[in-house]
Amino acid sequence: MTPEELEAARGRTVPDVVADGLDVLFCGINPGLLSAATGHHFARPGNRFWPVLHACGFTPRQLAPAQQHELPGFGLGITNVAARATARADELTAAELREGGEQLAATVLRYRPRWLAVAGVTAYRTAFGERRARIGPQERTIGSTRIWALPNPSGLNAHWTLQTMAEEYARLRAAAGHHCWSGPG
């Protein structure tokens, strides 16, 4: 992609990958420009979402972003807190994240996944007004859907390694009772 093509994707949205009754609906903060340009969630090569999803046992092989349509077959889906594509998540306003939290709650109530997994605890805190939220399971539910705050898989989140993220995602996989295809736990 050229810089011009990426910039043209600013403000676009990426369709949700969702179905009724999923085990886990993963939720990014918002689409990056490459995701918006390609229409695929977590599309930037440095993003660790797809490698972590496989390493922790959620998928039998590492999927490419273009294979996101296969996720519902594994009981998984993807959405975002905020729909608007930006170069960096810090371009979003707190009001956008809070509005996104309301829209996310409506999506969860409609599709009823067993777990909502928000990949980015800071965005979760803002979207749901949970200032003290930490990584891990949350007390809040949306209907019968439980919530887990996960580390953001962005390459910018250097505090979490591929291994430590896979361990946290595996904790969610085990709590969700999701089949383990590979990896720890």
TrEMBL record:
Record's keyword annotation contains Hydrolase: yes
InterPro entries with a match to the protein in the record: MUG/TDG, Uracil-DNA_glycosylase-like, Uracil-DNA_glycosylase-like_sf
Single GO term (MF): hydrolase activity, acting on glycosyl bonds
SUPFAM superfamilies: Uracil-DNA glycosylase-like
SMART domains membership: UDG (SM00986), UreE_C (SM00987)
Record's keyword annotation contains DNA damage: yes
Positions of the Uracil-DNA glycosylase-like domain: 15-170
Organism field: Streptomyces humicola
Protein name listed in UniProt: G/U mismatch-specific DNA glycosylase
PANTHER family for this protein: G/T AND G/U MISMATCH-SPECIFIC DNA GLYCOSYLASE, G_T MISMATCH-SPECIFIC THYMINE DNA GLYCOSYLASE
Keyword list, A-Z: DNA damage, DNA repair, Glycosidase, Hydrolase
EC number per UniProt: 3.2.2.28
